[in-house]
């Protein structure tokens, strides 16, 4: 390939759909540790390309997939002619992942707290895309966690599925009920695709948790203090057509998650959660977006649902203008969560500059929580609705996190709610 000149795929793509093609060889340049059987699984489909246009398209897909599953850090396909008639040779110029990576970064936790993380890892450990990562995270509020994870992808033409295992320990303060929580867990998981738009996830959780009451904790919180063991299985299936996950401009998401805990351990319940999102462009560059979330947890047998397993609502990522996880049944100064919750948010966005990162938006959010022992969930949800409206700006950073600065006014609340009118800042990943 030394002195040859190659052109961009756009020169040929769409103009060579009738040119017959025979792929005679696929070659890799830059391979050190990647196993041959892994490469064969990734590029075998190229030999079925019947036209030059199809070969160009498939070569691009193969190079992209090599990077996404962790086999390569960079991959560039180069298509060369072969001596025979209609014959081609596909060359992949690749760069394999670094032997070891170490980094320090600032970020945002899922609760919106600023944190610092020390990360170390190795990609493609055994030459088949396996990844080992470890991290230690410390937040500005004093929470800290340690995580060790392993993931192995299932290789093959355009396969996006993997199995994973993680071991973590987390120590955090729960301000909504004035307690400290320690969690030690082993989680086994499977992530896969039924189709390109239908995603499937299974998790097996083994958790040892310790809830420690503080001097400010209510007696209802102290009743749940101590050690608990939780063994559960989670199953989630999602249909996702959004153009991006954090702030979509078009598309829909429908995700159903179920969790069953028991018969081993102290926790015994079944949980259901339904997440719905839809976004569509409007005239004048506006974007209309709507999100809804329904959650329900029910104890099995005679066991009461533990404080850590209940549903919570409130905060800058769902019902804005209210304190984090403070909606629902209260005892003195603590929130005890609930057995069911419903939340909905309607947004109107207007891109600013840069248009893919900075947005002005107005919204209305509403939600309510029903008690764990509710005898009529629908009536309790209707009687305890909270509503807030607001206007502000949203900033999206590389689909990694979302920052909102809003002026929020709660217009409907209940006695004892932690709510305030004014400027609120929210940061995180999972926003309604």
UniProtKB/TrEMBL annotation:
Superkingdom of origin: Eukaryota
Family as reported in the entry's similarity comment: Belongs to the SAM50/omp85 family.
PANTHER family: SORTING AND ASSEMBLY MACHINERY COMPONENT 50 HOMOLOG (PTHR12815:SF18), SORTING AND ASSEMBLY MACHINERY SAMM50 PROTEIN FAMILY MEMBER (PTHR12815)
GO BP annotations listed: mitochondrial respiratory chain complex assembly; protein insertion into mitochondrial outer membrane
GO CC, any one term: mitochondrial outer membrane
Protein name: Bacterial surface antigen (D15) domain-containing protein
Alphabetized InterPro entries for the sequence: Bac_surfAg_D15, D15-like
Pfam families assigned to the protein according to its UniProt record, in alphabetical order: Omp85 (PF01103)
Gene that specifies this protein: Acey_s0011.g1432
UniProt organism field: Ancylostoma ceylanicum
Record has Signal as a keyword: no
Keywords, comma-separated and alphabetical: Membrane, Transmembrane, Transmembrane beta strand
Chief localization: mitochondrion
Compartment(s) where it occurs, according to its Swiss-Prot or TrEMBL record: Mitochondrion outer membrane
Record-annotated Bacterial surface antigen (D15) domain positions: 127-431
Membrane topology recorded in Swiss-Prot or TrEMBL: Multi-pass membrane protein
